[in-house]
Amino acid sequence: MHLLFLLFALVCALLAALCLSPGLDGGFIFDDRDSIQKNYSVHIEQLENAEDLLYAAYSFHPGSGSRALSMLSFTLDYWRGGLDAKVFKTTNLLIHALTTLLLALFLRRLLTAAQWPSQCVAAGALTLALMWAIHPLQVSSVLYVVQRMQTLVTLFMLLALLAYLLMRQAQMEGRRSRQYGLLAALFWALGFASKEDAALLPLYTLALELTVLRFEAASPKLAAFWRKGYLFLTMVGAAALLFVVVPHYWRWDAYPYRDFSSYERLLTQGRVLAMYLGQIVLPLPNRLPFYYDDLVISRGLWQPLTTLPAWLLLFGLLAWAWHWRTRRPVFALGVFLFFAGHFMTSNVIGLELAFEHRNHFPLIGALLALADLCLMLWQRLAFRPSVAVALVAALFLATGTATVWRSHVWGEPMRFAEETLRLLPHSERAWVVLNAIYADRSGFKANPWLDRAIATCEQGAAVTGSAMLLSNAVIYKTIRGDVSPADWERLLARLPQVTMNVQNKSIVMVMLSNARRGRALDEDGMLRMLDIFNSRTRFRSNEYLQMAEYINNKTQQPEKALPFLRRAVEAAPPDDPEIAKALTQLREIGQEKWVGELEEIRRAREVP
Question: How far is 77 from 70, CA to CA, in rounded Å?
């Protein structure tokens, strides 16, 4: 029987891979560029140098060491196939298939522990694993390459939970359990090496204890240890959240690079979580747009009107789950896992408001809760097994079809961009992506593709007010040879009005990069643009140096480079070699007065 179950689980994994395979030919998108395409640390062609591998593993937020396992896996994919996105996506697909197999095994043991009807356990585990694996939400988790970080942490969280469940069941039966505890710790560590979401494992195990395991053990002392231990950890965690995390991240004004405060973010997350639940229950393609930059922010409980009802729905679900935690433990566990999975990203940290991949693990919880409700309904209405099988088959067919279609859309960059814009006509990102594809196909030369890129920029800017699209229009028209003062004025008038988020800050570096390539960008327009950015936001030291270099070497007003050099020195760490190199170059061109002033700033910063 175990072998037959394993065979069916393998079939589920294969079906999941087949449903997502139409998207393998899609290219890199969005954050893939910074983490993989432009992250030269992972571009390793030989694996002999351990130092290079270590440097690649630490290249996410350089030097932090976070997500080292994920970054190392990108390095191995580059070694196998260079910057072929299909190689990276194939690895993601293999991870997804493996997770599907593991999920079926975990759910079988979980449902058995939760005392589901024995005749439903195997079928229920396989059904839930396959439904999770072919859900349309998985397209953006698996085919968006950089979200391997998310899929890997889900894989290791499932392994850790399985080991934890085995440990606790052994303790309930009075058997040796230490080996399972060590495995759980190992998988937890590997999860941390994939993504910081691994910090949520204690919440997942607490949800298991509150519902299925009930802190039980064969030894009364051990049972008391688990009850008191979780009570202590809960109190410590709550204190850390209230007195450390919240004060550290809370902002009554807008977060840096965002246009919402902590209060507004929390209010909006009620609607975001309700939206996720709607996408899980009814995953129609037009409800899964991928980009959410046009999401309306909740400025109050009734602004927009859906804010308070969304929060009432969430509190109602939690109260329902708490009330049923002993009566329907699987339902309660599912609800708790859904909310626990979003505890970090739907909290006070100033992340983006919504991303579909954040549901990769919480989707397991939502499906568990729905499955338990369906089982209860089936038992009460006494459906014949053939009816249940027909309904499940129809659900698989509908869900799988939606996933195949969405994977097909993701399988070609132009198709993805055009479909995304159709779904999100007011999304700045959707317009930027389509414009970028047209520009890439033009080869950045005057031709019909570049004409389409310019038309997309102008149309998108009119709809969204995007400064990025206006800056792209200036660059493309400069290449085409018909840029006008009015084009520059539209950009310069817009820049003081937009939020200085990461995308808008990148305008500076894009413009400087094009200037270095010899594109004749208007000198006065460039200087005015740099002054606007210098007055509105902050950059890294090396970015200020690039601005100063452009002004000093490429314009007729080199004296305007000094304010940017001051900022570079102020932003640099002590003994920064790039600053030392810049000072040497300034001496060589006779700018001793500037060097003296900058050296004075350096000395002042070194004083405690």
Answer: 11
Burial class of residue 199, CB neighbours in 10 A (0-12, 13-18, 19+): middle
At residue 300, the 3 state secondary structure works out as strand
Token pair 């927009």 in the structure block, residue: 304
b/e per residue, 244-276, with b = 16+ CB within 10 A?
eeeeeeebeeebeebebbbebbbbbbbbbbbbb
DSSP-derived letter for residue 295 is P
Residues in the chain: 608
8 closest CA partner among 92, 107, 112, 95: 107
367 CB-contact burial (10 Å; exposed 0-12 / middle 13-18 / buried 19+) = buried
Helices (H), 195-244: 201-208, 220-240
Residue range 285-298, pLDDT digits in tens = 889 999 998 899 99
Cα–Cα–Cα angle for 198, 201, 204, nearest 5°? 140
Q: Are 554 and 560 in contact (CB under 8 A)?
A: no
Counting beta carbons within 10 angstroms of the beta carbon of residue 178, is it exposed (0 to 12), middle (13 to 18) or buried (19 or more)? exposed
State the pTM of this model: 0.91
pLDDT digits (tens, 9 = 90+) for 427-439: 999 999 999 999 9
